[in-house]
Amino acid sequence: MIESLLRATLLGLQLGMTLALVAAGLTLIFGMMDVINFAHGALYMFGAYFGLLVGESLGSFWLALLLAPLIVGLIGAAIEILSLRPLYGRNPLYHILLTFGIAIMVQGIVVQIWGSQSRRIPAPDLLTGSVSFGPVTYPVYWLFVLVLSTVLIGTIWIAIERSDLGILMRASAHDTEMVDALGVDVKKVFTGVFVFGSVLAAVAGVLLGASRSVHPGMGFGVIIEAFVIVVIGGLGSFKGAIYAALLIGLVIAYGALIAPALTDLFIFTLMAAVLIVKPSGLFGATEAA
Amino acid sequence: MSELTDVGGENDARPRSSSSRRLTVDSIETYYGDSHVLFDVSLSVGDGEIVALVGRNGAGKTTTLRSIMGLTPAKSGRIEKDGESIHGLDPHQVRKRGISWIPEERRVFGGLTVDENLRLAAHTADTDQRERIEEVYDRFSRLDERRTQKAGTMSGGEQQMLAIARALLGPETDLLLLDEPSEGLAPQIVKDVESIIRELNEEGVTVLLVEQNAEMALGLADRAYVLETGEIVHESSADELLADRSAMEQYLGVQ
């Protein structure tokens, strides 16, 4: 019993940290650009499929982990510059419709190219097998995912708190026009943030593509989880997204232990409870970091 | 441009020749969506001058500054800084031409500390600004004491100091656009703000000052324009306007 609980905890943290990679981009894009990006799940899925493509054709998981996010970053840049940019300053509904449309198009493209069956990115030999912590055995690959995601999230967190770029991000989330008037080319900042979010989503796609499965429905699956996380954490709050992602990861992992069929119910109950107690989410809408 | 619209005779505060003009705004028309806000607005600010733009609420004073800054671009007309057109530039490009905007309600970044607010402004310059940040702290000792305080938790006067300090960092500033710097401040603090504006001006910064508090603005300024429902209706030296009781009452409601 304790073994499976410990195992679920590790799994929950790992899943939470990977979801945090997706949710971080979503919340930063919303916080700074006021864009509700329904295409974020599609970028995550593109990450997984390009990871699959690179992994299978070049035979290297590591190249997949490096190249897929770069490709998706370029796609993100194209989406931001060509489709989002002309709509800034208009009703946010335009962005919802646009990104939702992009998500549907990406799903269609994926089915056309790769078909609709479920696949998996081959994990590298280096990361096969499992390790034991006392009574708990845990796959090495999952441990790798946990460590890598944690390092990435930790680095980003410190950068947002300390660096000039982080200050710029928090200031833009607060008052974009003022930042522009201070001499910052906000258009470039927006593109940068969108690309950054796309890259993070793609990294998560590759990482989970080798442990969960790669299939055309994964984009919409993850976007729902990510939105729940962002709403629980507080729209636009980076810190909130990380805490909420860990919370959701753990709920999914423990839920799978108790009643696998009911995990979605648990997640949405949690979201409803948070919203009833604190409608602006754990870290409110005014707290930009 | 130097012709007075309704004050004839001698005028010792006539703007200097166009070569020493910091800013020229020529017949701009500005809209918010479909609503026409500025009608054929022309004004000029000479190098080293303090020019006040006064008028009642909703006259278009803020919009004039926003048009110069490129935040609400003018549909037509000409805007020049030091003889070069800045019409059509984005706000960040206008800032790089040496124009700093201190908006109504100051708009400091409330969730950032004082130091972060200044670092953000400094970071847009091409040169290393660490020394200039320290200079700013020397000038504004209130800010020096509050480096790590969140800007949003400071008083209005302190936020105004921060907004001015922020405008002085980053690309070199030689023209300040100040929007309602006295708004919501206690009289003593307004005095402080006035003396800072005067000090900066003596150091060579040209100022275009928008104020609801006309007497304060005219006390500081060399020349003044009165804006009424989007049109310039009066132009004279600040002293003349201040002395002209009927104009003061007619345009500004000052008894």
UniProtKB/TrEMBL annotation, chain A:
Q: Which GO terms describe its biological process?
A: amino acid transport
Q: Where are the transmembrane segments?
A: 12-31, 38-55, 61-82, 94-115, 140-160, 189-211, 217-235, 242-259, 265-285
What keywords sit in the KW lines?
Answer: Amino-acid transport, Cell membrane, Membrane, Transmembrane, Transmembrane helix, Transport
InterPro entries assigned: ABC_transp_permease, BCAA_transport_permease
According to the UniProt record, one GO cellular component term is:
plasma membrane
* Cellular localisation: Cell membrane
Q: How does it sit in the membrane?
A: Multi-pass membrane protein
Supply the Pfam families for this chain. Answer: BPD_transp_2 (PF02653)
Q: What is its main location?
A: membrane
A molecular-function term among this protein's GO annotations: transmembrane transporter activity
Q: Report the domain of life of the source organism.
A: Archaea
For this chain, the family text in UniProt reads: Belongs to the binding-protein-dependent transport system permease family. LivHM subfamily.
Mind telling me which PANTHER family this protein's record contains? ABC TRANSPORTER ATP-BINDING PROTEIN (PTHR11795:SF442), BRANCHED-CHAIN AMINO ACID TRANSPORT SYSTEM PERMEASE PROTEIN LIVH (PTHR11795)
Q: What is this protein called?
A: Branched-chain amino acid transporter permease subunit LivH
From TrEMBL, chain B:
Any single GO molecular-function term of the entry would be:
ATP binding
**Superkingdom:** Archaea
Concerning Gene3D superfamilies, the annotation shows: P-loop containing nucleotide triphosphate hydrolases (3.40.50.300)
Q: Residue limits of the ABC transporter domain?
A: 23-254
Q: Name one Pfam family in it.
A: ABC_tran
TM ranges? none
Q: Does the keyword DNA repair apply?
A: no
Supply the CDD domains for this chain: ABC_TM1139_LivF_branched
Q: What ranges does the record give for the region Disordered, renumbered to this chain?
A: 1-21
Q: Which UniProt keywords apply?
A: Amino-acid transport, ATP-binding, Nucleotide-binding, Transport
Gene Ontology biological-process annotations: L-amino acid transport
**This protein's record includes keyword ATP-binding:** yes
What does the sequence similarity comment in the record state about its family? Answer: Belongs to the ABC transporter superfamily.
Name of the featured protein: Putative branched-chain amino acid transport ATP-binding protein LivG
Q: What is the lineage of its organism?
A: Archaea, Methanobacteriati, Methanobacteriota, Stenosarchaea group, Halobacteria
